[in-house]
Amino acid sequence: MRILITGADGRLGSELARVLTAQQHTVTGIDIGTVDITDREGVSGAFATASPDLVIHCAALTAVDFCAEHPDEALRINGYGTQVVAQACLRHGAALAYISTNEVFDGQQCRPRLEYDAPRPTNPYGYSKWVGEQVVRDLVSRHYIIRTSWLFAHGGHNFVHAVLQRAREGQPLRVVVNEVSSPTYAHDLAAAIAQLVATDSYGIYHLVNEGYASRWQFARQALDQAGFGAVLIEPIALTEFARTSRPPQYAILRNTAAARLGITLRPWPEALTAFLEAEGLRAR
Question: What is the pLDDT of residues 60-75, one digit of tens each?
Fold first, then answer.
């Protein structure tokens, strides 16, 4: 299969390129350095070159606080940029896999969210991604909408890296106890997406590592596995953590649709162990 990945230099996009290339697919990647997804001519040129059977649309503005400060920019990239990609898929007859987020939900219900629960975003990032979902559903009949949450990956700097860095430097740790979701390892997510797009079973999917945790529990597990079990974490409420964007409080995603196809991800503590081992950060 000929596959075009947008956001191919990002943490998930690069993992997908690695996995799909190993499976003998012909993979073409584009990123902001080569093609701006809001540029119709640039996107058309990329499609003409790659002639994709499938597009996996990872490219997005994911800095949630920046999105809160610049909601029009979030909508331009995540909403209307997705429209440009979807329209190109329509012209070229390509299927589209759109990577979305748990932040399309409001986090007000204390139960895991299912694939066809009604979205109700409460911040500009979540709203812009929900607009992208609607564009995909309206324009591309052969589509996958793939929601995930709390992605941690190799390369760059993520929540796990930040927690361990503060522990190494002896800095105090204050972590939220009432923001809850499903930590997800990019390595596992990429493998699950590769399985899913091989099925031609289009629809909405929640792909996350099994289980859920608060931010505090996630941090505690990372510290314990990395040999910082004696480091204390002060538990704080979400309202005490000053930031521009307010994330959903209880936005757990439950994998039901993909599980029916036999696609599941291991429990998140096991995934965290694998991540720390690969990074050389797990205590022996």
Answer: 999 999 999 999 999 9
